[in-house]
């Protein structure tokens, strides 16, 4: 098994060290904004397997970037230039935009079983590894931003995959609670995120990317705290893990349900349920 992600993360580790010196918050996150309104921006923090790529590629919003961004005094910007998505159990029904990229010219397929004659991909066969991937240019997503830049985030979503089925599907966080979740980075490693992982394993990853954040956690935490305070972002915790019980008893949160909850949070529907 080989993965281009190792090269990608090496470059990001260097950027994550250099950018704070310039007052820029490096973020392991995806981002999108409302069509025609790049100041209505949302960023999605989360570890691999929590749904950053899937949830940010919302056809009703403009995709800014998939995995790595900076937050400067002018707003946010993507510095990845492409997408690196998981393909295990990928379906045209649940994730049509990402699924379509797997048959486009130039998309790089990693660790997938395919028919040697028809070249048809098998999205369910994880006999090589569960870490099946496709890498494709950002413009392969039909609603991708042509500039990959936008204003200051109006909403900050912290994604977690709770394998215990304890955390709610969505919750509004105070700034202090948001900092707690950012610095703790609780989630579960799931199949396809690391070698040897075959079932969910609870873990903590500081700043949602501990191996790639070479400075002390408080450097990134203080940057995020100050930017949230200055620009008034609303923070949310979204659980894309298990519901109805822990792993082995409950079931994984449906993507459609999570999308609906996020839409309600981003468009202001939840403002009466979660008052300021």
Can you put this structure into words, describing what you see?
- This protein is α+β, with helices and mostly antiparallel strands and 276 residues long.
- The protein has 6 helices and 18 strands.
- It has helices spanning 5-18, 52-56, 96-101, 175-184, 217-231, 255-266; strands at 25-34, 37-45, 62-65, 68-72, 75-78, 82-86, 108-110, 113-114, 121-122, 133-137, 149-150, 153-160, 170-173, 186-189, 201-204, 234-239, 242-243, 251-252.
- The strands form 5 sheets. Strands 1, 2, 3, 4, 5, 11, 12, 13 and 16 form a 9-stranded mixed β-sheet that branches.
- Helix 4 (175-184) runs antiparallel to helix 5 (217-231).
- The longest helix is centred in the last third of the chain and has 15 residues, at 217-231.
- The N and C termini lie far apart (48 Å).
Layout of helices and strands:
Layout: H1 5-18, E1 25-34, E2 37-45, H2 52-56, E3 62-65, E4 68-72, E5 75-78, E6 82-86, H3 96-101, E7 108-110, E8 113-114, E9 121-122, E10 133-137, E11 149-150, E12 153-160, E13 170-173, H4 175-184, E14 186-189, E15 201-204, H5 217-231, E16 234-239, E17 242-243, E18 251-252, H6 255-266
Parallel strand pairs: 2-12, 12-16
Antiparallel strand pairs: 1-2, 1-3, 1-4, 4-5, 5-11, 6-10, 7-10, 8-9, 13-16, 14-15, 17-18
Helix pairs in contact: 4-5
